[in-house]
Amino acid sequence: MVFCLVVKCGSTSLRDKSIHFYRVPSIYNRKGKLNDTLQRRRNQWISLLKREDLTENKINSGRICSKHFITGQPAKWSDIDNPDWLPTQNMGYNSINQPAVSAQERFERAKRRKIKDPLKKSLSANTAMVSNIRKYFVFYLLNSFNNCTF
Question: Which residues form the THAP-type domain (predicted)?
Fold first, then answer.
């Protein structure tokens, strides 16, 4: 049986079948090497729990349920800007620093902007090329008009 480590949550794997449970991140990557980003993430997850009774055994055997993430699951460890990089929802205490659901929307908009940037650059290059073609065409027409005799 797995239980949620968050204060006042009470979710368990036996009773709550629709809820997913996630381990507190390890400080080692898949190759067994110590990773500073993972270490920082693990420390932040543990500090957000605000529990003084946590031992290494409880951290390793306990989980954090999907209720505590905006999208219902934690972000990938490399996606530091994602609001779900840390559990922030329904943490069992009142906090002014809890990001709203709109944090996920801001993250998605920023992601879309990063995808659109290459398009904007290519469009501006194409616009400049079309502008140069127009200038050349007008120059050609004016010169051919000047050389005409009536």
Answer: 1-90
